[in-house]
Amino acid sequence: MKDENQDGTQAIRRAAAILKQIAHVSGDAPMNLRNISEAVGLPRSTTHRILKSLTDTGLAAYNPASRKYEVGMLSYELGLAVSDRVLELAPWTACVDRVAERSNVTTYLMRRSGFEAVCVHKAEGRAVIRVIPVEVGQRRYLGVGAGATALLAGLPDDTAERVIATIAPELDVFESLDADTVREAVAETRATGFSESRGRAYRSIYGLGMGVRAFAEEPDLAISIAVHTEEVDDARIATWKSIIREEIEATRTRIAAR
Question: Which of 77, 119, 222, 236 is the most exposed place for a label (fewest CB within 10 A)?
Answer without folding.
Answer: 77
